[in-house]
Amino acid sequence: MTAARLPMRPMSPRRLTRIAVSYGILLLVTIVVSLPVFWFVVTTLKKDIEYLSYPIKIFPAVPQWDNYVKVFTTGGFSFTRYAGHSLFLAVTNTALIVLTSSMAGFAFSRLHGVPGRNALFMVVIALFIIPGSVYLIPQFIVYSRLRLTDTYWPWILGGLGASPFFIFMFRQFFATFPKELEDAAEVDGCGPFRVFWQIFLPNAKPALATAVIFNFGGVWGDYITPLIYLSDAKTTLSVKLAGSYMTPHGEPLTTVTLAANLVFALPLVIIFFLGQKYILKGVVTSGLKG
Fold first, then answer.
1. 30 in a domain, yes or no?
2. Whose CB among 100, 186, 189, 245 lies 3.0–4.6 Å from 253's, allowing a Cys bridge?
3. Which of 199, 192, 208, 202 is nearest to 285 (CA)?
4. 152 by DSSP, 3-state: which?
5. Does residue 259 belong to any structural domain of this protein?
């Protein structure tokens, strides 16, 4: 016996108009946002003379796929070697900063008996609103006196120091967990660290994914910090891409440089699409309660 289907009521002209206008605005915004990306990708397939030609040509006469080969064969440096430097710093710093920030966020959220907890959290919030450029030079002076410049220790120690933004995000996210989970674990003999490691952390995938994507992208694309701390032999790919693709006469290979930047951005695009469903959930959840 099948349930009878109720007849669908036709939508009113006003509602149809509202839906059409909404989708039209969304389509227009999508086109506007996508145009720079489209232009960027198309330009990587042009010759430099086509890139500089006037009137502007949208599509190349013959797609120059060889530009992507030149990314790895010209420039006077090993693309994969410096990509390895960037990957090592991004993965190492991200792993450490996510671990330490999640532990600190758990402590601020669940360890209510710790004296001075609220005062310390106010300090974290204060550090959160200070721009990174303010302590860039004092931080460099400290690492220089410790003889840690031209090493990767600033990224490792920075990861161990956690991030005020991620501490705040994890604190807000862990505050949404029901106290019954924690009470049940304590009845079973779990201490705070075991509660964090076995219960809270495995269930914090949205916050973890958000922190990983944000921090990995920040370290991978960072230009200023490697430029200040590292020599040419140890620097990252973002620094090498700035001015390495030149003709023998010293003229920039613009379209090859754009192709190199597109290849450079691919890991970030892949990571974002793999974790995009967690980003909004992590940010929204961590901002609602606490």
1. yes
2. 245
3. 208
4. coil
5. yes
